[in-house]
Design goal:
By secondary structure, the chain is of the alpha/beta class. It is built from ten helices and eight strands.
């Protein structure tokens, strides 16, 4: 895409970067650096150092993860909250495996899931994607300036569905365990205590060191011993929070 749009300023919003192949890094440096108006934003010091080393011809700047600038709308306190939500990734970035670390501490009504939409939200997602599918099937339609507002509206709807589903899931829990970066960010924004295991190349720890180490209520673990201590802390925080909620008549 960058090669297809010379002469247009392009900003890559904050990302963590990692290259498993030196040839891929060289190719990225050639494409990004050769564009002339491409700006790469990175959200952690490790990514910045990788970019300096592997992408010497690219303009790189540090920028905090953009999701931290989002503010979820206030919601009513939920009754009958789940004790613990484990949001665990199942893809190639899985490392320690937060679900496995959490397993000894789970109770029957705790929830173990990954990001996803279910029920009516999943149906709404499929419907919202129809304009995007039409744009792929009919390229001339996708290039039409008249059709652009339809595509933009579809993307906004998809983003709204994702956000609403995540908030519902997290507000139904008293504590969280996760190995996904934006689950950590959402837990910080919602004020939920949580345990974090890093992904395969350390992007959560990178963002934590760069931004979130002094905000939120969380513990980062790197092995089973740390996990045992962190989950003991989380269960205590959940118990204390439940007692405080009960003593204030359910307010939060």
């Amino acid at each position: 895409m960058i090669e297809d749009f010379p002469g247009r300023e392009i900003i890559q919003l904050p990302q963590s970067i990692q290259f498993g192949d030196a040839r891929a890094a060289a190719r990225a440096n050639a494409v990004f650096g050769g564009h002339g108006m491409f700006n790469l934003l990175v959200r952690d010091q490790e990514s910045y150092e990788r970019a300096q080393r592997l992408l010497p011809d690219v303009a790189v700047q540090f920028c905090h993860d953009s999701a931290l600038g989002w503010r979820p709308l206030p919601g009513k306190p939920m009754k009958n909250k789940t004790r613990m939500l484990v949001l665990a990734r199942q893809d190639h970035e899985k490392a320690l495996g937060i679900a496995e670390l959490a397993h000894p501490f789970l109770q029957a009504d705790d929830v173990v899931v990954d990001w996803g939409l279910f029920g009516s939200s999943a149906v709404s997602w499929r419907v919202a994607r129809i304009p995007l599918g039409l744009a792929r099937i009919f390229p001339s339609l996708g290039r039409s300036s008249l059709y652009y507002p339809v595509v933009r509206s579809a993307y906004k709807k998809l983003a709204r569905l994702n956000g609403q589903a995540g908030i519902r899931l997290f507000r139904a829990a008293s504590g969280v365990a996760t190995d996904r970066l934006h689950a950590h960010v959402l837990a910080v924004l919602l004020g939920l205590p949580h345990v974090i295991a890093d992904n395969s190349y350390g992007k959560i720890g990178g963002v934590l060191r760069a931004t979130t180490s002094k905000i939120g209520d969380h513990r980062l673990v790197s092995d089973q011993e740390e996990a045992e201590a962190a989950f003991a802390w989380l269960l205590k925080r959940i118990s204390t929070g439940s007692a405080e909620t009960a003593s204030t008549g359910g307010s939060s």
